[in-house]
Structure formats: C-alpha cells, structure tokens
Amino acid sequence: MTDRLLYVRLPCNPIFPIGVVYLADHVHKCFPAIAQRIFDLGTIPPLDFNRALDECIDEFEPTILVFSWRDIQIYAPVGGRGGNPLQNAFEFYYGKNPLVKLRGALGGLKVTSAYYGELWRNLGLIKRGLRRAKRYCSDPQIIVGGGAVSVFYEQLKTKLPAGTIVSVGEGETLLEKYLRGQAIEDERCYVVGRSQPRPRLIHEQPSPMVKTACDYDYIEQIWPAFDYYLQEDDFYLGVQTKRGCPHNCCYCVYTVVEGKQVRINPAAEVVQEMRQLYDRGIRNFWFTDAQFIPAKVFIDDVVELLEAIAASGMKDIHWAAYIRADNLTPRLCELMVQTGMNYFEIGITSGSQELVRKMRMGYNLRTVLQNCRDLKGAGFNDLVSVNYSFNVIDETLDTIRQTIAYHRELEAIFGAEKVEPAIFFIGLQPHTHLETYALNKEILKPGYDPMSMMPWTAKKLLWNPEPLGSFFGEVCLQAWQQNPNDFGREVMDILEQRLGKADLETALNAPLPKQKNFPPTMAEGKKLSPI
Fold first, then answer.
1. Cα 182–37–12 angle (5° rounding)?
2. Which sign, positive or negative, has the C-alpha torsion 55, 59, 60, 62?
3. How far apart are CA 473 and CA 492, in angstroms?
4. 471 pLDDT above the threshold of 80
5. pTM for the whole thing?
6. What CA–CA distance (Å, rounded) separates 425 from 442?
7. Contact partners, residue 420, CB within 8 Å, separation at least 6
8. pLDDT score, position 164
9. Checking phi first, is residue 346 left (phi over 0); if not, alpha (psi -120 to 50) or beta?
10. pLDDT digits (tens, 9 = 90+) for 272-325
C-alpha cells in the first residue's frame, strides 16, 4: 500500500503550526508522490474534536499518523486553562486571608483538572486516531513529536500505544528515513514497547539537513484550514531563519531540544518563504528562532537577511522575535527599524550582572543598555518586552534592587510606556541545569514526576524557593489586587516602594571570579551555514 501521511496537530492555542508545516514540506520535497494531509485541531471547537478527527481519517484513510503535541506544562503568568495558574498557585501557597487561600485552592483545582483533562484527552485522541485508522489499514504507524514530547519523552513511554515512534526534537530526517525504509535507531527517537530511550537522548545533536523555502502553494493544497491563519490582521505567522542555540542558560531546554550548533537558513530562502505569505496578505511575521541573534559570530548572517528583506519590496511588513540585545550593532539597529521590527523580547531574567552570570546566560548587561540606546537612536519607538524571573539562584534583596535600577534605565531609554516587564517564575523542566541543581540540593528527589500537578510537586517545579518565596508571593498578590491588568509594572513599583533601588553601576559591575567554574556559554568556533 502506498503511504498516506496525516499530520494531526493536537489542540493548543491558535499559534501557527510551523513544525507540522515544515515536516510536510520536507516530505513533499523528498517524496513528491506521497499523499499528505494536515489536520489542525487548534482550529476546531473542543466539542467537535472526536467527530472532526473521525471524519478526517474516514476521508483521507491514512497509513501513517503524525501527531504534533505542543503544550503540556502550564506554569505561566497569564490566563489560560480556565484561569491564571500562577495567581491560583500564589493565592493558595502564600495567601494570608483564608478566603483568598480558598479561592486559590478552588482555582488551582480547576486548573489541575483542566491540565489532567487535556493530558488524558490528547492521549485519547492519539489512541482514537489509531483505532479509526485501522479501519482502512491493518497496521497504521503512529509517530508522536512536538515541543511537549521533546521535553517529557521519558514520561510518555508508559502512556502511548505500543509501537508508537516517539520523536525528540526535529523530525524531518527521522520521517525521511522511515519512509525510505532505512533504520531509524540513530535518530533521536525510540519505539514504545520495543526499545527504551537512550540515556541523555535529548542531548544528542540533531541530524544536519538543508532547509529551503517552504512551498506554500503545496501546503495550501493539503491543508483545508490554512486560511484560518490568514483571516486576522494581528496574527504573526512563523518563519524560521535558523535552528539551534549555543548557550547554557540554566533553566532553558531550547539548547538541548534544538542542539547547540546553530544552523543558518539561507537568506534568499527565508525571503522567498516570507514572500509567499506576503502575497497571501500576511504582513506580520514572527521569527521562530530560539534566538534571532544567538551570538556575535552570527551578526553578519542577520545583516544579510535583513538587507535581503529590505531589498525585497515588502515595505509594509512588521516582524518580531526573541533577541539577545547584547549582540546588536548600529548597522543591525538601522536595519531592524528599516525592515519593520515593531516588537521584541529580551529574556535577560535579571538586572543583576552577578545573577546573569550565575544563570550561565552569557549577557553583558552594560552592553545590552548601550545597544538599546543605539536601537532607540535608530528610530525604534515600539514595544519592548523584558522578561524577569525573580528568585532565581542566589537572589537577594540587593540583587532585586539592582534589577529595579536596571529596569528603570531601560524605561529611561525607550519610555516607561514602551517597556513591558513580564514577570515569570521559572517552571523547572527536565534536562536543564536547574533540574540538576535542584536534585543536587535535594529540592527534588531522583525519580520525581515532572508532569505531576500535585501541590507538593507543583510548588517545587514552580521555582520560587524560600527564604524569598513568601516575600515574592506577597508582592505578587498585592500586584494582582491593585492592578491586575498591568501586573508586571505593578510588581516593579511595589518592589521599589518596599526595597528602593540600587545604583545602576552596582547592577552592572560583577567582577569575574578568580577561577572559572562554569562552562563557556557557546561552543567556540562552531558555525554551520546553511543547515
């Protein structure tokens, strides 16, 4: 029987499913005769999930079902899953008023129920798809991948049907080898019930591949709901310009999921992909790289890309990205403004150089400030989101004061109304340095379940340890009570009222220790282009 591939994107927020799109595009370029279909449950009302999946399988009769699972862990400072998980947790753990504590408990119960409900629902959809496909194929193959699977692949081995291929990280070469009938054991994967995931599987490097512009004429043919993402003017559609992240940030799992070697997509291919979406009416683009400018060695590649965009004739576009602002140059700043950047996120985590170093982030905060001044001087007048994760390793009242001073300087550069502090408390994830730290400090026990939402586990995974945990809990609860619609700015104001702020120079100065006891933040001299 000729293979027929059905890609099922499991339910999540309406974010453009670029991973599935790129998979289907790669398979089509390798096997033009293979029939494919994309089915995105993110575009389907929840009550219709089962019916719509059955109808799609009945119509297409797949032999291979590729499920993309994006979300599992829920820790976030924003609404979703029936409420605000962070607020519910803080009310329950830190609320002093019994009624507030009760509200947090009830909210947390609702969020927990929604979490386990979604987990069981997604597993049920995978099993339902397998059963339905057996009506048309005696032995259909199930492949499961995506962001959630890449992080929790070890825990899912007891939950997925026997014979399921579990894909970690990028799936293009795995799927290509499977369709060619080649061995897949050397790819980042395992087969449920037949093999065990290798130790440190996620830390293995992805297989190199050449990335060309996605063929959206073809994607439009195999994806009936493609127009769903073209209807709203505020949708940012994803375009990938590179893969991989060379850094060692202690809490981030990107660097192991995508690998530490940065692989550049050719600028001409990126622009060609953008042009196809532009011709379909898209004007907002999100560069889905782990970091748009991951290190100084890649500055020339970004300059080449932005110059190509400027020369493309797409004059009325806007774009956004995660950007390491320590890698900006005056030329980059000019090109960013010229090509329509209207939003970017800086994940500095702390405004204390001492803590930035301890988190292995590789930032020079003084350089970030100077580059932000250059960006403002180049004419940037739009929104900047600055991510802060308080109570990270070795946080003190002094380092909090330093972060406040740093944030006020960013406001002085861009304007207070243009700088949006996003307050996060790190959701501890497997395969990170922070997990190793927590195990070494006996905060977590070996064999713990990172997918657990039980209160005694969730409090440890939502990283806010004592002695400052209760203090931050109190501050956040006050901020939600006083100004829930501008939570981040309210937190910063309350912290400054209570603690004051440090001198900026204190925040920027952190002498290097005499003996370097942490690894470099990037693999020196490793630059691959193109992928």
1. 100
2. positive
3. 14
4. yes
5. 0.90
6. 20
7. 383, 384, 385, 386, 488, 489
8. 97
9. beta
10. 999 999 999 999 999 999 899 999 999 999 999 999 999 999 999 999 999 999
